[in-house]
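Q: I'm writing up a methods section and want to include an example of the input and output format. Could you take the sequence below and give the corresponding predicted structure tokens, formatted cleanly so I can copy it straight into the document?
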Amino acid sequence: MRRILIALLTTVSVYAQQQPTNTQVKCLPDNQDLPKIPELVTSGGRLRATVTVASELNRIPERYPIRINNASAQPGQPGTFSACWPQWIRALRSPEAQPPYAAIPEGSYGDPMPGPTLRARVGDVIELTFLNNIDPAKFNLSRDGGQGVDRGDQRQCDDSSAGYPGADTYPNCFHGSTTANIHFHGTHTNPNTTGDNVFLEVLSSRRLAGGPPVKPDDVKPAFDEFFRRCEVELGAIQYRTWPRKWSDLPKSWTDMQREKLMQFDSQPGTINKVWPVNEQELANGAWPQYYIGSYPYCFRLPYLANAPTPAPATAPDVHAAHTGGNGGAESQGSSFSPLLAGDPPRLPLQMGQAPGTHWYHAHKHGSTTIDVSNGMIGAFIIEGPYDDYLNEQYKAYGPQWTRKQPVMVINQLGTTPNLMKGQGQDRGNDFSINGRIHPVVTMAPGEVQLWRIVNGASRAGVLFDEGPPAGFHWRILARDGVQLKDANYQKTTDQTFLLASGNRVDLLVKAPDSCAAPNACTFHVRNTVEPSNNSPYPINLLTAKIAGTKPSPPMDFVKTADPNFPNFLNDIPADSVKATKTIDFSTIPQVFEGGVGPPRKPAAVHQIDGKSFDGDVGALVRLNTTEEWTIRNFAQIEHPFHIHINPFQVIETFEPMEQLADGKTPRYITDESTRTSPEQCFLDPKKPETWKSCTPPRFAAKDAIWWDVFPIPGGLQAVTQDPVTKKNDKAIVDDSGKQIVIPGWFKMRSRFVDYAGFYVIHCHILAHEDRGMMTVVEVAPSQSPYSHH
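A: Here is the clean output for your methods example:
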């Protein structure tokens, strides 16, 4: 077996961002106890801590062999196993987290672990000192921060011995892996300035030649000053956006940033200067994009208490339409007058921060895939009345019951995206939980635990299609960090479910008294990117070990979900919708022709509304309005749709690639002569009004579930029977000769309230986002500055 592994090593292409060691090491044995992720916990209404991204040598498991029978080996496939090599990765760590992260001795390596779990409460102010100390020497071929080699239309894209970037072109390609930021996924908060601002690019402190890593004490005086003022500025108004202007930050720190960025620009090899970009943004009244070494995050998680009619204590925070709420240049103002004479009354504030299981991850465009695969992710547990209710129901088993429950962060650990491997697309590496493959969770006989599960994998969905193992039972309390109404909670006993990339679930799990056989307590899942093409092999996700004494009194599921359901999570009625939009996702095969550099391989272009990401606004929304969007998908793969800041309710879906119960026969046909079952439904390729579901709806506007990631059903290629082959594979074309694709779609409603500004929608298969499947949402103020002229 060892000879086989050594031979396989010679076939693995080298990813330019990584410098793997060539020495295979022994993997951790399977069935390790699930480790507790170190935590940072709120205190006194604020979560103040340091989060650092640094280079770390970790033992990374990979699935071997790479290929079986001339095809990519799949997760769970018999004959595959884990093999490990120490690999340099980018890791999120914190010196204040408890329990502490394990120290890695000099010359040794550690095992993967997500970033610290952030544990805050609705109403808290989040104050994070973010430091970037990645060592560029460990990833020395990354095209990053304006540095690299001018390669024509491939300028600044990474490459590999597998021929990547193919048809990808900058900025929609893999690049920038030592520049970082954080997206606070699931937060309804300020998307601008020091909030959930994904347009930030924080360069590594070590990008400066000879510069030492930045330490917390280097910025502590300035950041403490800023955090104190931030608490005051955000203290009186739940939904206020602050800071607005760059001059709201400590001058000592902004002066230092200006100096260091100009120093960076002056270094040899810098193609694009970054400080002039900041200067132009300041002149335009926007928030500067580039920083180096450090950045202060400060924002509030707004708390909206239940009331007969939720209403604000003050008017919603409004911002200039084209500054994204970022304020102006040094001396410019940014807010409109809250109300002018004759203005119609504004809608009441309609959203609060949903308490539940959320998460955070790196979101630098071009490196999101590799950073998330390296483990730059973490759980973000936001507590509130939801936790209070559960703690009251389970108070017999100790105080703060919810804080003692397992937090499970799923990932597909890796150092090389599929396109870098030169072996064709696969489903990614095996699933890990908290950095471990096939971990063990200990449960007492008859115990009920709350499993907070985050699918932080960059690509694959985790399909719980077998239900719980025999003797176990579960119920779903929340999806995507938003609690279910009791009517939905009651339907979830042992319900199968999919966690697409980015989805979360709060799962109450009840153990049996014992396990009848060694594998009887193993929870199996499947790796999927679309329901019609699930991985054929069940995957061991985790195993429960039944040990200890039965709880007293006996435990059971809560009888009802929290009856004090938040008003702001009530259904969005149709008569409140003020605008509608249709947004199209598409994947177009494309072959690179000519250009500079080595030969390129074919690649797919991933677009939204026929356009790859370029920073332009793709969806304009007025603040404090409700909209209904139809999200369509013309690709045959499901694209998980994700929107930042505002969650949404799914009210209708259409899945043209759905199959009948036999798992083989298509539900929908585009030629009546190809019908093989009376259960099949005909879609007329020439009549779009027929492109809708013919079965009872899975989703409805009543008691609708809230999401922030939802897989868009794949599109169906219209075909008829070929007279020669007698197969249903002859394309039905439109007037231009192009094959008709009947898109899959879902309809969603969302309240775009409380925060003006810019954020993004994108596919949560992160390689698609990095390569262009993203666009900007602008939420503009309710009133134009010219509305009274």
